[in-house]
Amino acid sequence: MLALFLSSSSSYPTLTFLARSVARRATLSSLTMSTNLRRTTTTHAYAGNPLKSKTPKSTDSFSPSSAFDSLKSLIPQIPNHHTATPPSPDFRVLPFSKGRPLVFSTGSGGDGEASASPIWHLGWISLAECKGMLASRGVDLDENSLVYLGPKVEEDLVCWAVDVSEEEDGVVLVFESRKLCFVELRTLMVAADWVDQRAMDELAIAGHARALLEWHRVSRFCGSCGGANVPKEAGRRKQCSNEACGKRVYPRVDPVVIMLVIDRENDRALLSRQSRYVPRMWSCLAGFIEPGESLEEAVRRETWEETGIEVGDVVYHSSQPWPVGPSSMPCQLMLGFFAFAKTLDINVDKEELEDAQWHSREDVKKALTFAEYRKAQRTAASKIEQICKGVEKSQGLSTDFNVESGELAPMFIPGPFAIAHHLISTWVDQGSGNVHSKPQAVSRVCS
Ligand SMILES: [Zn+2]
């Protein structure tokens, strides 16, 4: 099943309640639209992390506390432990440098266009390799520097992440003849094949690990007393080391509303451009939720502030962890909505946006059709292969997408890794009356 496009006719139970309460106030036409638009549920990039689905109970050997105790007793025995029987569970570590996970690249080895591009994999290393890697830089492996990610029970493994932020761009590491390199998560995201469950699982694991490590980096001191925070529960939370304070802190999530604003006739959608976007890219409005406001209020306020448009009904679609935002925010949670406009006149806040315009469904459909998402994915995958070979030093992608030169579309929308893509494509599909064939429809426009 397509990892990114899981689609069903069922709704989330809790959201059904939300949608019902909205629907009671809705007009007949927007009620019809809402019902159709919320029929599609989506598992997005960075969601569906297989290591996180069920945290083991504390008595389980895979649990954070049990695994941490095993890890702590094991570290002093390294490097001799590899000659003994491997511990059960064993441990694997994913190193990060400056927010970039360690990866390696393999050729697909298959025939045909679909398997023509290289494939990236997370660069898990053993505890002994991790200790050796740090020792080569004069650093002792401390169990408190490892952050618990979760178990792979079927492989008798517990997975950890560690921040080794010293590597410069283009440095290639070699473990057991594998060439590995630290690569930007955004590049991995663009390069991940969205129909490959393994690739999407690895992207979700990398996103979660990056978010945790980034939170550890920016939460070193207590916000109450200024004392040093120390990791607890295998790095899943922290606590102030000042005994008189003892404040507990938990990994930070920054909620953001992202909304596709639709006109009353359900013919046009409001898309906007930020100055940081690549040329011709248009997307949904988005903004941070402020203290003391509901999600619906945040949708209405942000839309009003950025475009001067008044929003009435607000209908939830889906959510996406977004660990590739600014580093001061370890992980944003994008909460996706459809927002039904009560007014049409646009008054763009130029400090927030470069432009905002109403676009017809036909124009938006064209933008989906002509963006070469598959080509961009393969280009990024090839770039990662070059980085891992030490050939390519720069990490950035100059642009996420090229648009077919034969029939240049005036705009395109973000790729299938972004919730904006799914909000927009759901609306396009809803209008064409084929909401029940969502996976096929999206596959078509993304291939
Ligand atoms: Zn404190």
UniProtKB/TrEMBL annotation:
Protein name, UniProt field: NAD(+) diphosphatase
InterPro entries, per database record: NAD-cap_RNA_hydrolase_NudC, NADH_PPase-like_N, NudC-like_C, Nudix_hydrolase, NUDIX_hydrolase-like_dom_sf, NUDIX_hydrolase_CS, NUDIX_hydrolase_dom, Znr_NADH_PPase
Cofactor(s) annotated in UniProt: Zn(2+); Mg(2+)
Keyword Metal-binding found: yes
Family per record: Belongs to the Nudix hydrolase family. NudC subfamily.
GO molecular function: metal ion binding; NADH pyrophosphatase activity
NCBIfam families membership: PRK00241.1
EC id: 3.6.1.22
Organism of this sequence: Raphanus sativus (Radish)
GO CC field: cytosol; peroxisome
Keywords annotated in UniProt: Hydrolase, Magnesium, Metal-binding, NAD
Gene3D superfamilies: 3.90.79.20, Nucleoside Triphosphate Pyrophosphohydrolase
Residues in Nudix hydrolase domain copies: 251-381
GO biological process, alphabetically ordered: NAD+ catabolic process; NADP+ catabolic process
Region named Disordered: 42-62
Key word Metal-binding present: yes
Catalyzed reactions per annotation: a 5'-end NAD(+)-phospho-ribonucleoside in mRNA + H2O = a 5'-end phospho-adenosine-phospho-ribonucleoside in mRNA + beta-nicotinamide D-ribonucleotide + 2 H(+)
